[in-house]
Amino acid sequence: MKVTVVGSGYVGLVTGVCLAADGHEVRSVDVQADRIDAINRCAPPFYEPGLPELLRSVTQSGRFSGTTDLARAVREAEVVIIAVGTPTRGGRIDLTALEGALQSIGQILACCEDRKTVVMKSTVVPGTTDTLARSILECASGKNAGQGFGLAMNPEFLREGSAVQDFRNPDRIVIGSWDDASARAMDALYAGYSCPRVHTTPRNAELAKYAANALLGTLISFSNEVAAICESVPGTDVQTVMEALHLDRRLSPVLEGVVVRPQVLTYLAAGAGFGGSCLPKDIAALLHFGAENGVAMPLLRSVLDVNLARPAKLAEMLRRELGALNDKKIALLGLAFKPGTDDLRESPALRLAAVLLQERAELFAVDPFAANYTPGSVDPRIRRAVDPREAFRGADAIVLVTAWPQFIEWNWETLVALMRTPVVLDGRNALRGVRMPADTRYRCIGTAESPRETASVG
Ligand code: UGA
Q1: Domains of the chain with CATH codes
Q2: β-strands 117-120, 362-366: how paired?
Q3: Which positions of the chain have pLDDT values less than 50?
Q4: pTM of the full predicted structure?
């Protein structure tokens, strides 16, 4: 099929490239010419494993290209997918970019003779597709949704760091269609996929996306709340408590005598809290949407509150070890919101850094992408290092905030020996089994004492 993806950011570009790899002819549109130039040079403007290789392959095959010419791209398409950003401002979803895209697409539809299907991929609150999007497209095109053009909502469930794999091996495809012809067009678009499909209304599709992210955030905050109890009750350890919880057969089924550990269990783990461009934003938007509809949603309010308290908790643990933090040299391990990405948005590491800077600590950060971040994205007072020795030398404390696997592989005995005071705060419980010098003051999440010698569950 001929597909145009409007918005060549994270979701749009991954979607476009993967659809081209499926055999569709894809145009990826963006208003930023430098972004399109980079895409046409096969250099994605963000880090995503597997994307550069796939982009090169679909570009060379002639099935994929980037353009700033929206009108032409829409005219040539059978399916127009909208994947522009929907950030939140003051908790409320900001639809400025989306409204602009809809208006432009509607005007182009006015001059098109064939019937195209417009698909909302951007995350939007329930009712956006069948009210706001429909009315902008109808007014601008002079045509009726369902007759003059098709309309559908197809949320994405891509995780940064595994987005290409997630697109190509989806758990499910959710298609909320306004009209039957659009449902059929979407089935044709995803003809190569055998996963379950949920055919439903646009509103259900919109809410399914928010509900999925809200559940993940809830699991993480729940785990952190259990950790908070463990931190104040001697003799308890969140790691053991959660392991026991995971082994409930309703969470870890036993198939042919083997315990199956579903991936979702990794969200039932205590740590420095969640971040990224999706979970915090989507939960805030859902809360706001609930309030607008007279639904208070106190559970989700608490999910965000618990999450926001995590960096302050880490700062308090540091104060307990070091006293006042001013002029203390503290090294943060990890800046991105999770391993496997260079995305700093809503990163717990940056929130912790803000608290520590306010207390006039001297900050270093070690991150595999340390050298790549643009000057404006990380506070210039944070000195960035790629070589961990630079950060460990003379440090008063090390705080692991993002559990990059390579951090765990380091020789901690040698590195900790370089520190002025050997305080290691493990904000992700990732270093529990790692060998460190005997005098290391190792502290981690969810226990009142150092658990380095405690038994693990077999
Ligand atoms: C999330 C969802 O997982 C995707 O399904 C969804 O499509 C996406 O948002 C979106 O709305 O676009 P993402 O933000 O890339 O994807 O990040 P996750 O991998 O889910 O991580 C979110 C937070 O959960 C991070 O802070 C991370 O540290 C934490 N996390 C992640 C865990 O605690 N455990 C994990 O196993 C993975």
Answers
A1: 2-200 (3.40.50.720), 201-458 (3.40.50.720)
A2: unpaired
A3: 453-458
A4: 0.94
